[in-house]
Amino acid sequence: MSALGMQLTSTMTVIRLGDGSLLLHSPVAMTPERRAAVEALGRGPRAQHRSA
């Protein structure tokens, strides 16, 4: 898949909620690099999981 001229091999949406926490929608496997990128955004994601 490509978007804006970039090849995307996986997608995950990170949304900052009103209280400053992060919501990860459709998360992918957390590699050390991905975890560091999410943690650099600030408060970590809530530990909740809902299946469809």
How is this structure best described in words?
This protein is an alpha+beta fold and 52 residues long. The chain has a domain of 33 residues. The protein is built from 1 helix and 4 strands. It is globular.
Can you summarize this structure?
This protein has one helix at 32-39, and strands at residues 2-3, 6-7, 13-16, 22-25.
Strand order of the largest sheet: 1-2
User: What's the number of extended β-strand segments?
Assistant: 4
What is the beta-strand fraction?
A: 15-25%
Helix content: 10-25%
- Provide a count of the helices: 1
Mean residue pLDDT: 77
| Secondary structure category | alpha+beta
As residue ranges, the low-confidence spans are none
Write the layout of secondary structure elements.
Elements lengths: L1 E2 L2 E2 L5 E4 L5 E4 L6 H8 L13
Antiparallel strand pairs: 1-2, 3-4
Give short descriptive properties of this protein.
52 residues; alpha+beta; two-stranded antiparallel ribbon; 4 strands; 23% strand
